[in-house]
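just leaving the lab so this will be short. below you get a single protein, a line of residues and a line of whole numbers that encode the local backbone shape. id like you to explain what the token line says about the fold, in plain words if possible. thanks a lot i owe you, the record is right below:

…
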Amino acid sequence: MPDHIAFILRHAVIGFVLALVFVAMLLAFDVAGLWHLVTHTADGPIAIVMLVVFFTITFGAVQIGYQIMSLGDDDDDDDDQGGHRQPIPIRLRSDDHR
């Protein structure tokens, strides 16, 4: 499998795990009576699946985007000479100066 596909799939799975944890916390803390709604209706399991799927899309996309954008974070300022340049004085001849 190519490295970039494995990279995307690995971080999509991380987004899926985050979605599962988030939905579990929503149900455990009974946010807006969600646990009661899910357990007392016939369509409760479908609602849980939909929550997990949509949160997976959201968290997976955020995780992939964050990791892709942080790929270029190589700091080249680790050495003593990086980033702070000193001006070099240049002498002008009198005929060049107007």
